[in-house]
Amino acid sequence: MSLNYSKSSIGKRWIFLALPHKFSNFLFRSLLSRNNEQNKLEAAKFAELVTLAYGSKFYFSNKFLNFPFELGRIYIDKDSKERFFNSLKTLRQQPEQRKQISLELKKTIESIPKDQLDAQSWKLFSLILTGFGFIRAGTIARQNFIDVAISEVSRQVASSRTLHQLIRGLLESQRFQEASYYITTFSKTLGITTTNNPYDDYLSLLKQPRQLLKDSEQITKSKNEIIYENLIRNKSVALVATAEIGSESGYEIDSMDTVARVKFQGLAIMPNKKFAGTRCDISLYTEDLVKKFITKSKNDPQYLNFLKSTKIIVLKQKSEVQIDNIHTRNLGYWAPTFLTTATSGTLFIFDIARKSPSKIKLFGFNFYTQRNLYNSALLKFYENQGSLRDIGLPKNWFKFSSVRKNSAIIAAGFLSHDPRSDFLLVKNLYELSGLIDGTPEVLEILNLTADEYDARLEEMLGDW
Predict the structure, then answer these.
(1) Quick check: 371 and 458 in contact, CB under 8 A?
(2) Interacting residues of 116 by C-beta distance below 8 A, sequence separation 6+
(3) Measured distance between the N- and C-terminal CA atoms of the chain, rounded to whole angstroms
(4) Which domain holds residue 393?
(5) DSSP class of residue 254?
(6) Tell me: the pLDDT tens digits for 230-267?
(7) Does 171 share its domain with 234?
(8) Are 192 and 232 in a shared domain?
(9) Distance between CA 209 and CA 229 in Å, rounded?
(10) For burial by CB atoms within 10 Å, which of 131, 151, 212, 389 has the most?
(11) Distance of alpha carbon 383 from the chain centroid
(12) Residue 1 within any structural domain of the chain
């Protein structure tokens, strides 16, 4: 889930946000959708726009949130809703009160009876709370989702979406026996088969009993899949993400059997080789970068020369695409994170782990605990307005020190990427699979408890 940042799309959303919420809700349901579950997904997109406005220097009203609350059926009691809205108002005026306000709001969310919302509304409320920087309050809401989802399953009113998210939430919490029960009991409803079962792969990686299903379906591996597996199976893999690397790790990276990089765009926009190395055997790209590469290479045949040593490209998209003459493959399974789709780095970790490496060592991962997600070389590259336009983002998008890029804008990203899910999925692999290693700064984060990680995120947001 992410916003379309075109002016027309944002303008249309603002019409619904600015109108009286009962009227805009009526219009939306009358003109666009009567599907309550789908509308909760749409409500998250509107809420993300509200969080972006919240952190801007322009006019903001708490009333803007009324529409996503109404569309997403977050029907909490009046007092709790007012305390949440007043927390937003106070925090915007007195940012130094963040810690106190956060703790008070956590108590408010804890006091809301779980049965006031259905599971999907608790999920939406969790994302909204986290998207405004109230990480610990958001964690209470996500825990309520699990309890309410279990109740909905027992009453046979849970949707397949709720079932999937319940299983992922139980896996996240290491409640493996319960997760396995739902996987086997509802395999047909979930669309799980022997060749389409990321949960089984995840349980196997965590050394839990596999829930083998009776299914004779077979799959033939493509040439590119075999190339990919040969680069990973029984190999040591350096997986290099785009954050700063705090130690001179370049030699170690280049000495490992296989070097995989997240969104490799050439040595010219990488940190010094003594920190990040130079090899790139595998790289993962999102759809926006793929479009950029194809467009740029049509006008400049030399544009993709930085990929000449890359052996295969992994694509985070469903359609098949050819990039120059390089082998490509699409992601097989997506990592089973809880509330949202995993970030590119976490998807890549899970995808590589499934191919039986001897170890995966992580470099340049900060799991959102730093204000700057990207290293200084990449940020300097993105100072060029055209570089951002090429991937569909507004100018100054990564200037976190500017008025626009304050804590609220950073937290807004947590609506589309749930950081706790990414952290706990990788932490589980680190603790139970025996595959994951990392630089000291990576391991320091992975050794945090879940609650310590929540606190670290709120501390990172700091004062506005």
Answers:
(1) no
(2) 75, 76, 77
(3) 26
(4) 223-461
(5) H
(6) 999 999 999 999 999 989 999 999 999 999 999 999 99
(7) no
(8) no
(9) 24
(10) 131
(11) 24
(12) no
